[in-house]
Amino acid sequence: MQQEYANAIDIYGIMLTNNPTDAQTYRARGFAFQLSGKYQSALSDYTSALDLAPDAATAWACVAMRQTILREGKKPQVGDAELAGLFERAGFESLLAGDFENARRGFQSCENRYPQYHSVNEVLHLIQNPRIDWADPEQRRQIFQAIVSNYSYHLPPGLLDRLKAAAQDSKPTSLK
After folding, report:
1. Burial classification of residue 20, based on how many CB atoms lie within 10 Å of its CB (0-12 exposed, 13-18 middle, 19 or more buried)
2. CA angle at residue 104 from 110 to 125, to 5 degrees?
3. Is the pLDDT score of 175 beyond 70?
4. Residue 170 confidence (pLDDT)
5. How confident is the model at residue 140, as a pLDDT?
6. pLDDT of residue 176
7. Domain spans, the chain
8. What distance in Å separates the CA atoms of residue 128 and residue 158, rounded to the nearest whole number?
9. Which of 60, 94, 127, 145 is spaced 20 to 30 Å from 172 by Cα?
10. Which residue has the higher pLDDT, 97 or 66?
11. 2-53, CATH topology level
């Protein structure tokens, strides 16, 4: 089985040589690395995929890999701050996808891991307001506006741009 993973990793590597901006291939190779127990390499590929094509599923895959690395006693390159950043990113990606529960989970996990991380406490408090009707596009837009205006410190530019777009757009998104 390990040989099959190694072959897949090699094939994905060739594909990435020909198309180094293919997020799907990075995710696939990351999964092959994960199955072969090469967690640092898996995390690196999942992070590359997230940078190229941000989405909540890839953000949560990055979180899972970092947790696996920590759980297995591997020496993390950065540690708690990096994991907190991955949780924060997963929270924002989930929020943008309309998945309020996973957004809350991501921000709460970030705060638990690193309580003073960026403005995560304020964002968590904001989205947990029981008066928010997440089905109301205007309320969602106002939440995104508040995040962009008050709590966007140190967010990656691409993510910040998507939050700004959500703050301007009052169309419904799929809510879970």
Report:
1. exposed
2. 85
3. no
4. 52
5. 92
6. 39
7. 2-53, 98-168
8. 25
9. 60
10. 97
11. 1.25.40
